[in-house]
Specification:
This protein is α/β, with parallel strands linked by helices and 242 residues long. It folds into 2 domains: 125 residues, 2,3-Dihydroxybiphenyl 1,2-Dioxygenase, domain 1; 99 residues, Rhodanese-like domain (Oxidized Rhodanese, domain 1, 3-Layer(aba) Sandwich). The protein is built from 8 helices and 12 strands. The strands form 2 sheets. Strands 2-3-4-1-5-8-7-6 form an 8-stranded mixed β-sheet. Strand 9, helix 5 and strand 10 form a beta-alpha-beta unit. The termini are far apart.
Length: 242
């Protein structure tokens, strides 16, 4: 069961006392309890819907084959069924199918393929940007530039990279993002950090969202962009100096 809540920290305190166990996952705006008695998995999520309402409910299976079998059985029983593509959701890569009852309550039949660092997308849509593309600070961006396992992407587009960019970042165009990512990033779990021109520039949001939809699980965003980098005295490069 996944519940919409106003304050995850308050909900964690309540449900820890109620169930007598700590959440197995506890992230900003999100917590996941696995309770042995009574057997239950409870999710609480901020900013997803009206606090106190059901986000969705579901049945977790051990394998993809079981999901396929139960999906087929539900369809044969006349239930509306929609098979979902494998994707990252709620800090895990999942394979699933959906159905809903006569009141519109969403039910998922799913299995977890792998745990991830990034939230991914909401199962019911409308995931806030700070969950899909968690903001990073200047220190993490600086450390990422020195880490060969981290990919830094300049998402300014339209000549922004040539005018001013952070040395060591890759210039991504706003078209064919998935193809660019396949060549430059590779591993879907690799850490990816994006930035744009400034806090009003939407390039990092645009490219980052497409990366998450393509299955990349560990994407962060430096909100202040090149302007914020410059404001603290950090150097920038141009097409002539790179």
């Amino acid at each position: 069961m996944s519940l919409n809540v106003a304050d995850v920290e308050a909900s964690v305190e309540f449900y820890t006392k109620l169930f007598g166990v700590e959440p197995v996952k506890h992230r900003p705006g999100y917590a996941n309890f696995i309770v042995a008695d009574p057997p239950m998995k409870l999710i609480v999520i901020e900013d997803e819907g009206v606090p106190g309402s059901i986000n969705h409910v579901g049945i977790e299976f051990e394998t993809s084959e079981e999901v396929a079998t139960e999906t087929e059985r539900a369809a044969e029983a006349g239930l509306p069924v929609q098979v979902d593509d494998p994707h990252t959701c709620c800090f895990a890569t999942q394979e699933k199918a959906w159905t809903q009852d006569s009141d519109g309550v969403l039910w998922e039949l799913y299995t977890v393929v792998a745990e991830t660092e990034g939230f991914g997308a909401s199962p019911s849509g409308g995931t806030p940007l700070h969950k899909t593309l968690p903001p990073i600070d200047l220190d993490e961006l600086r450390e990422g530039l020195d880490n060969p396992d981290v990919v830094i992407i300049d998402a300014q587009g339209n000549g922004g990279f040539e005018e001013a960019h952070i040395e060591g970042a890759l210039n991504f165009g706003l078209e064919n993002v998935a193809a660019q990512a396949a060549e430059a990033i590779g591993d879907l779990n690799r850490r990816v950090l994006l930035y744009c021109t400034d806090s009003d520039c939407l390039g990092a949001e645009f490219i980052g969202t497409q990366l998450v939809e393509a299955g990349y699980t560990n994407v962060g965003r430096f909100v202040d962009g090149v302007a914020g980098w410059r404001d603290v005295g950090m150097p920038v490069a141009t097409s002539e100096t790179s």
